[in-house]
Design a protein that fits this description.
The structure holds 2 protein chains of 2 kinds.
Chain A lengths: L3 H32 L3 H7 L11 H9 L1 H34 L6 H13 L4 H11 L6 H5 L7 H14 L2 H9 L4 H12 L1 H17 L2 H6 L9 H22 L1 H7 L4 H37 L1
Helix pairs in contact in A: 1-15, 3-15, 4-8, 4-11, 4-13, 5-8, 9-10, 11-15, 13-14, 13-15
Chain B lengths: L1 H41 L17 H4 L6 H8 L1 H34 L3 H11 L6 H12 L5 H7 L16 H26 L3 H9 L4 H26 L6 H6 L8 H4 L2 H10 L4 H29 L7
The chains are: A mainly alpha, B mainly alpha.
């Protein structure tokens, strides 16, 4: 039974949602179009949705002059995301499994040990000093992998509450009576029953690794060859800035040589490359991502 | 008596040992994660003393001379302390209020719509949440770049207005930052309200409809009151985080432009710049300690309130 009020509401709802959806994608579209625009056209008309002249020169330039760099950074990002996500999931499962065990001696204390890390942290300065002076992660791959991203208390608690609520005690007890040890129970019963939450934690962790620029920015000082795509993006923005500034200083002759650098389109081209993997996998992960946020929201 | 009691005690000990032994593999799988938390979260804590020292890189934290509260005195003697505190808190207040209203509104709209298109809307508005701050910085730059930006060239020019040098005018940035934050988080924030909404008993609405209540009345008198507990919870949680800010948002989006610090500098960016750009480690550490301690108190207070309202939603 739909009344005219309902209909009005639905129409208004669709209009609002269409506006919001457009707002969400328009900046991304502008970025992609800009990356495919002729550099001179942007210098003349600004970034635009309707370019005067299309051109893929920015991408050609990237692969001709910085090809090795971009491909390498992509490789670092993929490797980092894969290794980081795997480690993160394993560590999280381990701790969450322990905290979910009723009757585990010291469970309360261990839970506090985990929760406390959400409440109080030393902040950037002591963490930086710890990682650089004690662990010497500066300019190593570990600098991208380890600081702050490897495991977090939030994911542990999320997984723990899933273990508690969705893995029936009876099954675990039955397995134990049948002679299954803790490890067998974990690998044969708890993990298979907890695939949704494992997928969620893997997703959260994978996105955090792919998008992280902070660790590389702080800890990679000399080893720019270890830059992830995000670090490269960050650096190229500054480098291109420097190049164009120099160009106007040196004078007209140098200017002509440097004007081949498609300085304004190349930024958008690399940003497009950085966002591409997310856009490609998004349709596949979007459902479990939403599910995970719902689970997380219930908790915290 | 003693023999029997001894026997009971021995068997109890045996029980505890047996119980403990059963759990040894559990402790083993926990160890890597616990060690990581120790390295990442506990080991740095003693380093907080650097805020009370005149840091000397050659001497290290522990051998650097003590200066008591001097770093804090310097910090609070400058305008910086007031500025970064004000910015951090005001932005958080704005985010909390706007996110609350927008997330609830979007959740209500989505819950009333039907069909596949609803899922499309939901996915699309969540997308910005998955984009890194560096790239968000680029997106914003495409619009606000002084020479080539879309706004200066295509919007302001259309109205015959002069271009604005966005990256050197602090007054515009509160709006830009709040807008970008809303853009980034609306899809994320509405999910939790939406899932709460979908859990409501439809009977309320059916009987309201029979009584002739309009959609607006249903929202006003049924949906909003039912959402109130979730809204209070989410708000309290956000209040607990009020002394922290999204570092990427405040560092990448204004592109670390010095001219914009008046309205874009927060405690997090201040600590970062102090440590890595200015090399003023002691001052930076003092600001960090100030943030950690007040942040800690706020989180405890927020959680205490949440606990009073709803035991299950509390953090611990």
């Amino acid at each position: 039974m739909r009344t005219s009020g309902d209909k009005k509401f639905a129409i208004l709802g669709h209009i609002i949602m269409i506006i919001l959806s457009l707002a969400a994608v328009i900046p991304i579209i502008l970025m992609v179009i800009s990356s495919l625009t002729d550099n001179a056209a942007i210098l003349k008309n600004g970034y635009s949705f309707l370019p005067e002249k299309w051109s893929a020169y920015a991408y050609q330039w990237i692969f001709a002059f910085n090809g090795g760099m971009v491909i390498r950074a992509y490789g670092v990002s993929f490797l980092l995301t894969a290794v980081g996500t795997l480690c993160s999931v394993l560590l999280t499962i381990g701790v969450a499994y322990g905290l979910s065990k009723k009757g585990l001696p010291g469970r309360g204390l261990l839970t506090f040990y985990v929760v406390f890390t959400m409440l109080f942290n030393g902040g950037l300065v002591p963490t930086y000093i710890n990682y650089t002076n004690v662990f010497h992660v500066k300019d190593t791959f570990f600098a991208l992998l380890v600081p702050s991203l490897l495991m977090n208390a939030f994911n542990v608690l999320l997984m723990k509450s899933y273990f508690v609520s969705s893995v029936p005690d009876e099954i675990v007890e039955a397995a134990f009576i049948d002679g299954a040890g803790e490890m067998t129970t974990l690998s044969r019963i708890v993990i298979p029953l907890s695939k949704p939450i494992i997928a969620t934690v893997a997703l959260f962790s994978g996105i955090a690794y792919w998008n992280d620029w902070n660790n590389g920015y702080i800890y990679l000082v000399k080893r720019t060859d270890l830059f992830s795509i995000q670090n490269l993006l960050n650096r190229l923005m500054q480098n291109i800035n420097a190049l164009t500034q120099n160009a106007s200083d040196i004078g007209s002759q140098a200017n002509q040589g440097l004007s081949n650098i498609p300085s304004v389109t190349v930024r958008m081209a690399i940003a497009t490359l950085g966002i591409l993997p997310i856009i490609v996998v998004y349709p596949f992960i979007q459902k479990s991502f939403v599910k995970g946020i719902t689970l997380g929201g219930v908790k915290g | 008596m003693s023999a029997a009691a001894g026997k009971v005690k021995a068997s109890q000990n045996k029980m505890t040992w047996k119980r403990f032994k059963r759990f040894i593999p559990v402790y083993l799988v926990m160890i890597p994660g616990l060690v990581y938390l120790f390295i990442n979260n506990y080991m740095p804590l003693p380093g907080l003393v650097v805020a009370f020292k005149q840091y000397n890189a050659g001497k290290g934290i522990y051998k650097s001379p003590w200066v008591g509260f001097k770093n804090f005195q310097y910090l609070f003697a400058t305008n910086d302390a007031l500025l970064i505190t004000r910015n951090t808190i005001l932005y958080n207040v704005a985010f909390i209020a706007i996110n609350l209203v927008c997330a609830i509104a979007v959740a209500i709209i989505l819950s009333e719509l039907t069909g596949k298109i609803k899922n499309v809307y939901q996915s699309v508005i969540l997308l910005p949440h998955l984009i890194s701050s560096v790239i968000i910085g680029y997106l914003v730059f495409a619009f606000f770049s002084v020479e080539n930006g879309f706004v200066n060239n295509n919007i302001l020019a259309l109205f015959g207005k002069e271009g604005v040098s966005w990256y050197s005018e602090p007054k515009y940035w509160p709006f830009i930052i709040v807008f970008v934050n809303t853009w980034k988080s609306i899809g994320f924030n509405c999910i939790i309200y939406l899932s709460t909404l979908l859990g409501f008993d439809r009977a309320f609405y059916e009987s309201a409809e029979i009584d002739g209540a309009t959609k607006w009345q249903q929202i006003r008198y049924i949906t909003l009151p039912l959402l109130k507990p979730t809204a209070i919870m989410m708000t309290l949680m956000a209040v607990g985080r009020m002394f922290y800010s999204d570092f990427g948002l405040f560092y990448q989006v204004p592109m670390n432009q010095g001219a914009l610090y008046a309205t874009t500098q927060t405690i997090d960016t201040y600590v970062y710049r102090g440590l890595l750009q200015l090399g003023n480690i002691s001052m930076s550490a003092a600001a960090g300690v100030y943030q950690s301690i007040i942040g800690f108190v706020l989180i405890l207070a927020a959680n205490l309130l949440v606990k009073k309202l709803d035991r299950d939603s509390a953090l611990w």
